[in-house]
Amino acid sequence: MIWKPELTVAAVVEERGRFLIVEERAARRRVFNQPAGHVEEGEDFVRAVVRETLEETAWQFEPQAIVGVYLWKNPTNQKTFLRVAYSGTVSSQDVSRPLDVGILRVHWLTRDQLLGNEARLRSPMVLRCVDDYLAGVRFPLGLLSQLPPEQVAARAAVL
Predict the structure, then answer these.
(1) Domain count within the chain
(2) Which one, out of 56, 86, 95, 143, has a CA that is 20 to 30 A from the CA of 104?
């Protein structure tokens, strides 16, 4: 059996005690999540998190560190997600930019507000990322390396 977890990225952005959060429709529910989404084929992690943040919030995201790598299996649909969460800052918002389909609103919420809406969090990874960020967990961006296809092809030719 081939196991294929969904590879996703998420942005943890905090300003003055509030976190950038999207309210979105997922499985017929209104849920809260970090700006997050799937890594597309051929896309590196950093580009993916910058793209997803822009598409879901219209904010320009500047990743500064990795907060964590999280593995979670959704008990409802049995899908497994591998999430790489990045912390960073946002510099500007293009208010004329339409948000991704399914995104209802963009919020700035405190940890307590997220905790008070725990039943509406898209997954337990949302609060875990915030808690790890608040605990000071940071890894350098270079922790994850993506080898360019030409380097992999050259190495395979040698073997």
Answers:
(1) 1
(2) 86
